[in-house]
Sequence to fold (653 residues):
Amino acid sequence: MSNILEVKNLTMHYETLDGDVDAVKDITFNVKAGESFGIVGESGCGKTSVAMCLLQLQAENGKISNGSILFDGQELVGMSENDLRKVRWDGISIVFQGAMNAWNPVVKVGEQIREAMREHNPKSTKSQNTEKINELFNMVGLDSSASERFPHELSGGMKQRAIIALALSCDPKLIIADEPTTALDVVIQDQILTEIKNVQELLGLSLIYISHDIAVIAEMTDKIAVMYAGSIVEIGPTEEVFKSPKHSYTRSLLDSTPSIMGEKKKLRSLEGEPPSLINKIDGCSFSPRCPSPSNECKNQSIEMGLIKVGIDHYADKCCSGCISE
Amino acid sequence: MLTNAVRVVSVNNLIEVRNLVKHFEVSGGLFSRNKRIIKAVDGIDFEIKAGESLGLVGQSGCGKTTTARSLCLLDPKTSGDVNFYNSESQKMESIDEIDDEGLRQFRRNMQMIFQDPYESLNPRWTLKDIIKEPLDIHNIGDLKDREEAVIEILKTVGLTPPQNYLSRYPHEISGGQRQRVSIARTLIMKPKFVICDEPTSMLDVSIRISIMDLMLNLAKELNVSYLYITHDLAVARYMCNRIAVMFNGKIVEIAESEELLQNPIHPYTKRLISSIPIPDPNYKRERYEVNYDELDKIISNNPDKKMIDIGNGHFVASHDTKGFFIET
Fold:
């Protein structure tokens, strides 16, 4: 399969009054057509910043200093606003965290989707658009009459489904889902996840799924990247990473996730807090919280970077040294 | 290893809830005479023993938080009995019958931890004042005692050294630390019973476990009982000895945590369990389908609220006299 998205050495920082915040550091990954790619990490690790860079929607003070983003052969970094409009929604669409609260309260849901369709595909007629909206609503498990309702008439789960329909409205090739179920309870989350999976299979879409919940990532993705302090510390096929996590941070994440399956075990908490990205970090950014750091890890001149640890599986140099056993 | 197994659960009930009902009246509109009644909590029974944690799980809107609010008298209940063990008279007392002094006593013994540590702490107060406030209200000890108590409790919840935190404001500390402050403020009263309303759902995964472990350790040390409200069964399993499953204002199943997860009987419990993501990419989860409308109809057609005891302290609602939910 060919790559639909190729991100190479992407580096982005936010310029603030206190100095530069290195939110995304030298990130490289590819997403194949039809593949689900997961990005996991705790808040502030740069997950959402990566998503914003992919759509070139980063905040005004967010500056990409290096790297390239190739989507379907087109370079997105430095592309003009006009050309970007054709990529956004037609090529890549995004479901934000809590997006269900972003509906305009005084316009019917269907009309808001129609607005996006008109903008991106002026030639299609109103009846064609309506037909498509009904089709999309059925696809995400909503009754087509829901498009004639106002946002306050829909429950949280229904609004989130409608958001997914909106994201699909212009036939994108890649959908970015940024914590799409965080504000919902487990049963609704389960329904939304199933809906996303079905739609993805049905339309052969590529998916980038961003979450802090490693259990959801395990279910949704073929390949994952674990992010810490703005860098990818481990990347590989989901099964492989879960079976033999190489980075100490990945292990900590797995050890701190409660499950209803298997024997009830004592979970290990991860002490400390992620480092502030405003200070330059030399050496391993995880070593202050690492449960088993070696003397080498604490050495600030240690060279960082991903090395191959398995088939398609890469982890940070520092940790792949200590966790060989 | 069972983390809860080491906890001493006494045989005495600390709190007993019998047929608790909380209805809300919703008017049909400005000029409408029709009043609709929302049955947020519709006749639930449970009891919590001293030192035990009971998990209350269910979807948003099923009445979990309303139950908690009725229990600690934040919302007056519509009907039903709540009995609380009075350690002075050494017997169960109904909260309807206690006098003002008894009520103060009751409030000392029952505290609440809220979901959002960003909203439940006063941004203009220093941490010392925030944690000290309950002592001021209940007029416990003199100023020096109170300050010592604050320092002591900060150490207990792992905010060390305490001197670094006393004069800080909530915005100067992280989310995990803020939730520790909420816990400190709750535990400074040395309560017997703490209601926790999704205390970790706003926190990051890595911080979540340390807060949960802290709460488990404190429960053991101080012999506190918890009513732990959550929608995540994996969290409930980790935190609680027993779990009660709520659906539309009713408890449909209640059992020991492991028993409930391994041997669920009510279809709604099965649905809930089948919707929890498993952190294992090879595990193929199968959704257990439930027709909510049908379930709701069966429940409202069979207002008989008797729970069937199926052994091992496992109770399940019997909405249908024919034993609809129990396959024999």
